[in-house]
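One such shown below:
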Amino acid sequence: MSSGGSGSTISSGSFLDLLPDELLIQIFGHLAVVGSTWEEDDPLRLSRLPYRQSDLELLPCTGLRGYPFLAQVCRKWKRLLGTPMAQHLIWRRVCIDLGHELITSIHTPLRWSNQRPTTAEYNQAFQTKTISAGKVLHFLGGVAPHVTSLAIANSEGFEADDGEYVPLADKHNFGPSHLGFALALVRNTLTLVVYRCNDLVTADAGVWTLASQLPCLRTLAVEGLRALLPEGHVAPLGELSKLESLTLTGDEFRSDWGVGLEAIPASWSRLTALTRLELRGHSLLPELPPWLAAGGKPDPRSGMPGLRHLDISGCGALELAPLTRLTGLHVLVLQNLALDHVLPSPAEVAAAAQADQQLARRALPDLQPLAPSLRSLSLSNNRFTRLPVWLHRLTRLEHLDVAYNRDLHIRSSLTPSLSSLPHLALLDFRSVHVTKDKSYWCEAKCTTMQHLSKLAKALKRRCPQPRLLMDI
């Protein structure tokens, strides 16, 4: 009788109801930080590498805002979510994804919490639902004492599950002034991410000035820029004396000319605490400033003496020669720059024009001066036809990425030149020497794959075994 009563009690409720409050709050806290990249999206676990992948885009994690029905489950959960302990744990990282907020507001009725609405019901709700900036700010005001990381995402639109772009022009009234007020609410935050909110950061230059008034800010990322960003607009960021990571990226899916920074402001020389600088997709950026690539020992009072990570992918007009003077770099990312080991000869240019083939526009400088410290080098999605002859001299390398160089022809053995690198952990040779006709392999393709196979066998004899990514 007792066992029957116990079984009926458990079946009518949930095992979670039996957990202590403290443990249940810890579960809620885990939901708040779990990422949005699932195993099926990243089966090779490339998002864990110290540099971005040219074929993998990471979206801001929605955190607990991605679970809008938790407080509706039962009175106990609603009570726990309102306790100071839970508030401090689950609202340290807050993401206001305006596209996601719109979708969850459509699904708010409890009857839709465990089943999807019909297409007609969804379309009808979508036409009537809007997001109030006042409600967003009211929510931020309630959790502001706990927030250490704030992300604002998708103010202009988002990609739906079917891949179609959904504009949000008339679905919310959240503008630059509201963003400024939000920054004032979380003035002591450590991390600020503005993802695909071009209308919020380019319509009013004052937003950049407000961002510079966050005294504790360690990480700033503004991604998805779709317009020119004048030097004067971002100059106030030089006041962020504690900033350690700065990311400004242009929209990588735009093909037009003129996106992103026109120049790096001189005021950024005061960012002496910066260790990570990502400037992706700035098509008009002409050069790195002299104080960034100064020879010899840098002045600890100016420049970026602690810079360890530099990403200038997609900066098609940037002069690359000064890179050889950045001898303190640990990570260098040079993706989508139309690079080769040398510039093509006039005869090769003429032959490529007749064959409608794209050749390199620039040559990669010799990076051997970086050998004492460089640990990760990403050269993916370029136009390499051969590997640089000096790669094996970068003896500190842990990660080498040459994926998506579709004309790369490996003419000689990679062993022991690459296989003997003492710290090697990953070699990425995916999609190299891709031919239009996949029904057979030409001689160059066969030679390339033969050398990669020999490299794979050599790496298997090492312990621990480095990872080799290649197409089979």
Observations:
- The radius of gyration is 26 Å.
- The chain has three domains: 15-185, 218-291+302-314, 320-472.
- The chain has a mean pLDDT of 87.
